[in-house]
Amino acid sequence: MKRARRTTRTDGETATSEGKVFVLQFRIWLKDVSPMVWRRVQVPSTTPLHDFHGVLQVAMGWQGIHLYQFIIHTVRYGSWETGARSPAIALADLKLRKRSRFLYESDLNVPWEHEIRLEERRPIKPGTRYSACTGGDGNCPQEGLRRAGRLDVAAGQRLRL
What we know:
two-stranded parallel ribbon; globular; disordered C terminus; mainly beta; 161 residues
């Protein structure tokens, strides 16, 4: 039987504490897009990166048909075709601290870069379903859209959460 991980609680708490499951709240920005496109999602700390990729794709309104990678602590995790490490690792095992930032790239032919920041770590509320997109603004470009330099996403469509 595996022993529970123990971490010291400080201002920069990590995602795991004595084997407890927490809700991790992330804010995601799509980089180099104007006006700003962002989402806020909440996921259990046990969520593996490959499932987190799926959450991000749904939150952005994409289908998840392209290669992807996360760059966390200088290590690449993602699609096996990229030569990255397996995304089967749970978010809790990454030992993210509050305000930690990392990159997520999807559609590696373009690529679309996202900056992700861990905003909060909360106890799970009984009866609440996770994963959830709890906020956001801006319209994402269409999946597979090629771009030249900075992209201006048309206003007028509203975000549907």
